[in-house]
Amino acid sequence: MTDTMRKISDGLERAFASRGFAEPSVEDLRDAAGVSLRTLYKYTPSRAEMVLAALENRQQRYLHRVFDGLPEEPDVALYTILSRVGDWMATETSHGCLFHAAVAADPESPALRALLERHKAEVATRAATACGLGGNDTALLVIIEGLTQAWPLRGAAAVEAAKRLGHALQATTS
Amino acid sequence: MTDTMRKISDGLERAFASRGFAEPSVEDLRDAAGVSLRTLYKYTPSRAEMVLAALENRQQRYLHRVFDGLPEEPDVALYTILSRVGDWMATETSHGCLFHAAVAADPESPALRALLERHKAEVATRAATACGLGGNDTALLVIIEGLTQAWPLRGAAAVEAAKRLGHALQATTS
DNA sequence: GCGTAGGTAGAGGGATCATTCTACATCGTC
DNA sequence: GACGATGTAGAATGATCCCTCTACCTACGC
After folding, report:
1. Burial letters A134-153, b for 16+ CB under 10 A, else e
2. Mutation test of the interface with chain B: which of A98, A116, A137, A142, choosing the one with the most B Cβ atoms within 10 A?
3. Straight-line distance from CA A39 to C1' C9, in Å?
4. Is residue B161 within a helix (H) or strand (E), and if so which, with residue range?
5. Looking at the whole model, is its pTM more than 0.70?
6. Going by C-beta distance under 8 Å and a sequence separation of 6 or more, which residues neighbour residue A129?
7. Which residues of chain B are under the pLDDT cut of 50?
C-alpha cells in the first residue's frame, strides 16, 4: 500500500526530473513507476496528480538533504547549505528547479502554484533560522534561487559566488 | 515581410508569455499572431520554431528595456538595473523567466538550451560592465536570477533584498 | 478450499493536435 | 489589365495521448 505509493512517487519524480513535464506520456510514467496502468491511476487518478505526487516526493527529499543536521554556527551553516544545494544540482538535476519547471509547464494550475509557494517558503524560513537571519529570509531566498538557476550555466563558480554574497549579507546585518 | 515577421514574433511572445509553452495550440498561436495558418507556417515552419521566434523577440525587448541608457556611476547603475528587472517582472511576466520556462517545457532541445545560455551570458556581461564588476559577473548573475525567481513570491521585497546584496558585493570588491 | 484485496497485461474510445493542402482574395507593378 | 507575390480561410490527415475497461493472476486469512 504505502509501499506501492512510495515506489510510484519515486519513479514519477525520476521520470519528470530527467525528461521534463511535457514529454513523458502516461505509459512512459507507468514504466518509470514500475507498476501497471491500472495501479498507477488508482493512486494518482490523473496525469496532473502524478505531477503533484512527484513534487511532494521531491520536496521531502530536498528538505532532508539540504537542511538535516546543519552545524550550529550561523556562517558555517550558510556555507553548508549552499554547498549542499550545489551538490543537489550536480547529482539530482542538470537544469533548474523542478518546482519552477512544473509551474512553467502548466502555469494555470493553482495546485502547482500553491505547492511552489509552500516549497519556497519552507526553504526560505529554514535557511533563515539556520543562518541567524530571521527577518531577512527574502535575501537568502534570492541567493538560493539565484544559485539554483545559475548553477546550470556556471557550475561550481555559482556556488562560490553565492557563498560570497551570503558572507557579505551576514557581515552587513550582524 | 519584415513587418509580418515582427507581427508574428510579437504575437507569439505574448501568447507564450501569458499561457505557457504547453497550453496554446498552433491555432491559438495563429489567433495571437493575427495571421493565417499558412503564413504562420511560412515564417516559422514548425511549432518549435515559433517558440524560438518568440524568445528572440523577448531577448531584444528585455535587453533594450533593462540595459539601455544606464547611468555612469556603477552603484547607481546597479540599482537601476535591479529596479528595471523588478519593473519588467511586474509588467511583463507574473511568473519567472520565459527562457527558463521554455527550456523546462522542452529540456531535450539543444536550440533552446543554446538560446538560454546566450541570453544569460549577455545579461551577465552587460550587467558586470555597467556596474564595474568585470571579473565578478557570476555573482551578478546569481543576484539577477535570484531576483527574477523570487519576485513572483515576494514582489518588491525581492528587489530590495537584491539591492542590498548588490551593494554588499560592490562594497567587498572595491 | 475459498473469498477478497491488490496486483498485471493490454486493447479501445474519444478527443486533441501539428502539419499539409486546396481554393480564393488582394495589391503593387509592369 | 494581367501577373506574381503575399496574404486568408479552413478542411483533411495522420498521429498521439489520456483515460477506461475487461480479463486474469497471486497471496493470504479464515
Report:
1. eebbbbbbbbbbbbbbbbbb
2. A142
3. 12
4. helix B156-173
5. yes
6. none
7. none
